[in-house]
Write a structure and sequence with these properties.
The protein is an alpha/beta fold and 318 residues long. 40% of the residues lie in helices and 18% in strands. The radius of gyration is 20 Å and the shape is globular.
Length: 318
């Protein structure tokens, strides 16, 4: 079922959803299920599955020359989505990236998803690999998420890269894209960021999922700016509970979001990460309840592969 259909079916009731990381290579899929199963009692209509592109490493040979090697640390998203849908009978939503994909790779990826009965995708540009300062597209790949959305939309209309494909049938994906209440780190301003977000909607995106935020005011202001710009699609807030002292510096650095002063002070007072984890849970519960009162369609939690804190939050909110 499509995300938009889940919204319509809920009749205005906020629903619980979450996002998972594929396990590292070498881990059994049961390690993934162990973190999903405790959250199923809250009846998520769908589960997002992230995609992690390849990374480059350079191996030095005896002659001093460097060999560029590609490594992947996590298994494929398609297989994980199929396993989730088979085991839990809920929709799995794979992320698909510009980085690491040619246009042909993208088309083949989408064909596989369509074959498996997967109705939704989240289209993202993706981040630069660690060896690059700025994002660089794969040769014959997309530079921007808007171009990826256009390709998915074309496939929905039966337009394949090879015009001579016989018996080609259109796909029917519901397309999600990302939004940044505190702007994307590469955008010069929030207004500029929303300008390009609107282009993704015009290209065919059906809904927006936001980057994590810790101040609901910034989410509400972002939604208002989107509406003022003429963006009418559903906007889903993304939430993550703070869990460790290290995240006070890590989250602003990696995700380019601000932490409210009240949250920082509460964390600083904690004796250890056990206390910090509880502060993070309570803060996220308060965020969740305020957002639910505002009738958001979903509360979408970034689990980062761990379900315990999310389970505790959901038990208080849903």
């Amino acid at each position: 079922m499509k995300v938009l259909e889940h919204i319509e079916k809920s009749k205005g009731k906020t629903q619980f959803t979450f996002e998972i990381l594929p396990p590292l290579k070498g881990q059994h899929i049961d390690s993934l299920f162990e973190n999903i199963t405790p959250l199923m009692e809250f009846k998520p209509p769908f589960i997002d599955v992230t995609y992690h592109r390849e990374e480059y490493v350079y191996k030095e040979h005896d002659n001093g020359l460097l060999e560029k090697r590609i490594i992947r640390k996590r298994p494929g998203t398609v297989g994980i989505c199929a396993a989730i849908q088979h085991r839990y009978k809920v929709d799995a939503i794979p992320h698909i990236l510009c980085g690491g994909f040619t246009k042909e790779d993208t088309e083949n990826f989408l064909i596989d998803l369509d074959f498996l009965g997967i109705d939704n995708v989240v289209a993202l540009r993706g981040d630069a690999v660690k060896s690059e300062t700025y994002f660089k597209p794969t040769q014959d790949g997309h530079l921007y998420a808007v171009d990826l959305v256009k390709q998915i939309k074309d496939l929905n209309q039966g337009s394949y890269l090879d015009d001579e494909v016989e018996y080609s049938a259109p796909t029917d994906f519901c397309i999600g894209v990302s939004g940044y209440p505190e702007k994307h780190m590469e955008a010069p301003s929030l207004d500029s960021d929303i300008h390009f977000l609107k282009k993704k909607i015009a290209a065919g995106a059906d809904y927006i999922v936001t980057q994590m935020f810790f101040d609901n005011t910034k989410f509400f202001e972002f939604v208002e700016k989107c509406r003022d710009a003429g963006i009418t699609v559903p906007i889903i807030p993304g939430l993550k509970p703070l869990a460790t002292r290290k995240q006070l510096n890590l989250i602003p650095h990696r995700f380019h979001v601000d932490l409210p002063e009240a949250l920082i002070k509460a964390v600083v007072k904690c004796k250890d990460n056990t206390e910090i984890r509880q502060v993070g849970i309570e803060w996220c519960i308060a965020q969740s309840k305020e957002l639910m009162a505002a009738n958001v369609p979903f509360l979408h939690y970034y689990s980062m592969g761990k379900s315990t804190a999310i389970e505790q939050i959901a038990a208080e909110v849903f």
